[in-house]
Design a protein that fits this description.
This protein is mainly alpha-helical and about 80 residues long. Helix content is about 70%, strand content about 0%.
């Protein structure tokens, strides 16, 4: 039985308990951790891994970090 790629990735991230680890207000940090995990050796066996080249990976990490910082700032002012 073949699983959809999305389910394999979801199971991978679910097993890492990122939201539980970072708490309700830790979504930005969880996002950054998820991006790093998605590009780690642990994820190498998952479908679609390594489709981004190095330049794209750096850009994805940069955007994830920026969005995380923006989300943190907006929570502090709310």
């Amino acid at each position: 039985e073949k699983n959809f790629a999305e389910f394999k990735w979801a199971n991978f991230f679910r097993s890492k308990n990122l939201l539980a680890k970072f708490g309700k207000n830790g979504l930005p940090q969880a996002l950054i951790a998820a991006v790093k995990l998605a590009q780690s050796d642990e994820a190498r066996s998952l479908p679609g891994f390594d489709k981004l080249n190095l330049t794209e990976r750096i850009e994805v990490q940069k955007v994830a970090k920026e969005k995380g910082i923006v989300a943190l700032k907006s929570k502090k002012t709310a």
